[in-house]
Amino acid sequence: MRSASAILRFFRSEPFAVIGGAIYGAIVLVAIFADGLAPYPPKAILRVGARVARYLPMSADHWLGTTSSGRDVLSQLIWGTRAALAVGLTAAVAVVAIGTVLGLLSGYLGGWVDKIITWFADIVLGLPFLPSMLVLASLTRPGTLVVILSVAGLLWPNTARVIRAQVLSLRERAWVEAARVTGCSTGRIMFVHVLPQVLPLAALYGSVAIGWAILAEASASFLGFGDPDTMSWGVMLQEAYANQALSRGAWNWFAPPGAALMAMVLAGFLISRGSEKLLFPKLAEQ
Amino acid sequence: MTALIDATGLEKIFRSRGRDVAAVADVSLSVGAGEALGIVGESGCGKTTTARMLLRLEDPTAGRIIFDGTDITTLRGAALLKFRAQAQLVFQNPFDALNPRFTIRRALAEPLNNFGVPVSEHAERIDAVLHRVRLTPPAAWLDRRPHELSGGQLQRVVLARALIPGPKLIVADEPVSMLDVSVRAGILNLLREARDALGLAAVYISHDLALIRYVCERTMVMYLGRVVEEGPTKELIAKPAHPYTRALVAAVPVPHVTQDRAQLPIRGSLSDAASVGGCAFRGRCPHAMKICTDQAPPLRSITPTRQVACHLEGAML
ipTM of this model? Predict the structure, then answer.
């Protein structure tokens, strides 16, 4: 009960986080109920009489019009949330898991373990994000898995660094030493005593990673390295681009997926900005 | 006398910015079952490092520690775990010594789990230890978390956590310095009761001679990582031999402003300490002689029970 009211108070004092949370919430709901919400199947080629319903403008039947091949834009947009969330959440969980475990090992164990992990993280941080992902995708089979793997493989150092710094300060606390005296193994101290203390921070980095992952998936799809069978916002943008939607002035086709992407990434940013105050109250005071 | 813990020639060298700093040099001590030894000295004299080495929280760079007949200097794994169950620590700052997320029940059950006490015995042992530290009725405390308790209550939990594995040795590092004066005596009495009832050996670390006099039969005075004087507490305070001990005794606050106080027979501060060769205290010593620069004074016996590391002779001591 107490934590529920604390969360409520936090939301009242942090309007940015509330907006971010609301956007996430809306997108999650849309993804869950995509079947019911989408007025048409996303890949169905619609017809008006005998003719394919190409480039229809916005109307009561098609709120966001149709594409060059006669598909309903709104339905594609709604189905796209599923792909976005699937990629975003999986990649974020992977980033947080890898980053947290490596940061924990590095910070708590120190010595050569710390040296190797820090060294490796520095190298990965030096890699440019998009080119590295494209190289990876072109060397393997393009698809969602490659996107998730590259997001996880390229973004973990950010999380790992922050967790490491946090662990370095936590390990000096007396209750960590108390755990040693009372017979806790190193693994138990790391995962039972220290890990729960850094999880909120890890979750924060996860929320940023969701945005990154969705953007990465869209970029990969836009450049033709995505999974062509998945209906995602990136695939929509790529099709619109390939069919010269911009020069045709078919705003109703490419603006919605672009706006959805922006909203999603913005939501991650807003939430992380809001939780900063929760996690680092001293910084907020200054 | 067979001591419970017997340390010889303990040394700890920390590497700091490429320089070797000896935090503890050639410290030997022994504590028998039921006996209490006090280690006093100012900040940075190595008393905490010595205590940490006794508990194997810090590995000594030289020296040997025999505990209950076993050499524990290099124990690892299961053998170290067995030692940990027998040597426990009471922390200085009770507000930081308990995991803030653990309930009291979990904080007390954890050592039992770690030391392989069957789960069926947990409830009974937790109940008994909470009675021992006077947190009664135990049921009222079990589901609380550290932030709900006061400093004195927390220190009782810390003490309970140290007692619950059934140790033979308790090391208390400034056990009451973070507590309100009003609850200090309560905690010290609990510690003494527990020691008497269970026959525990104890090492008290403190900068407070008044506390040491209250709880320890024997006292060791450390200065810059070395033992400068050792002996029965009463004698040591009544007739301090080493110039540094004299200064410590003279520095104890007295409750009457009108009472005469000896002038502090000491000069300068810790930073005036001589670093290389000779007696470490010579830079601040009112009796420094030529030999103090040339030669470090060894710890020698002046009575059958007292030892001092000073070049002064006879009546000067």
Answer: 0.83
